[in-house]
Amino acid sequence: MTAGTTKNLPRILVVDDEHAIQRFLKTALDPGEFSVHLADSGHTGLAAAVAVRPDVILLDLGLPDLDGIEVIRRIREWSQVPIIVLSVREREDDKVQALDTGADDYLTKPFGIGELLARVKVALRRSLQQAPEPVFRVGELEVDLPLRRVSVAGAEVQLTPTEYELLRLLVSHAGKVLTHSQILKQIWGVAYLEQPHVLRVNISNLRRKLEADASRPRYILTEPGVGYRMRSGG
């Protein structure tokens, strides 16, 4: 492989103090497909984020010097690079805090490499897009953002203004987990942060209109105790 080819590969920065995890990820992330860079602490991770300018960061929360939440907070002061948290912390509060601070996704260790690769590729597609695609398609669902037209299997679906704005938000962040508080703040404002039932009702209404079986959604996916994620197109 030539040096020029390596430079053109998507850059993945792994920030994790477990060397076994570093070796696993460096091997699992095909060197022919990604350029993998390693850091074993919060401070070295922050320095590498500046030096490497990664396309995606895989971040552990339990670092020896800085908590991963603080690393996310500092990176978000100057960069919107996608951050996928890989952590043994399973508590919903930890996931919500990481996502609210600015992480794009959260996988609990141990995880399947297939799922990780899928999440990385979604994050890469999002980071390479300057703006959301004008027409979003996944399965039989199509959302034409410029025309504000939503259809399923070619049949137009009528949404209320709030339902459409909620769908537009999810589509604009397809593949990314949005927490309950993020969605409530964006759609209804901070006054509704303590009224999650408003969100649940609107998600339920959207699913009834968009899904073939609302009890087994294919498009708007639930992240239990955390929020929702729009299935990514492609």
UniProtKB/TrEMBL annotation:
Modification 4-aspartylphosphate, positions: D60
Superkingdom classification of source: Bacteria
Keyword entries, A-Z: Cytoplasm, DNA-binding, Phosphoprotein, Transcription, Transcription regulation, Two-component regulatory system
Record-annotated OmpR/PhoB-type domain positions: 133-232
PROSITE patterns per the UniProt record, alphabetical: OMPR_PHOB, RESPONSE_REGULATORY
GO BP of this protein: positive regulation of DNA-templated transcription
GO cellular component, one term: cytosol
UniProt-annotated location(s): Cytoplasm
InterPro entries: CheY-like_superfamily, OmpR/PhoB-type_DNA-bd, Sig_transdc_resp-reg_receiver, WalR-like, WH-like_DNA-bd_sf
SUPFAM superfamilies: CheY-like
Molecular function as annotated in GO: cis-regulatory region sequence-specific DNA binding; identical protein binding; phosphorelay response regulator activity
Main subcellular location: cytoplasm
DNA-binding region listed in the record: 133-232
Occurrences of domain Response regulatory (ranges): 11-124
Pfam short name (any one): Trans_reg_C
PANTHER family: KDP OPERON TRANSCRIPTIONAL REGULATORY PROTEIN KDPE, REGULATOR OF RPOS
Protein name: DNA-binding response regulator
Gene that this sequence comes from: kdpE
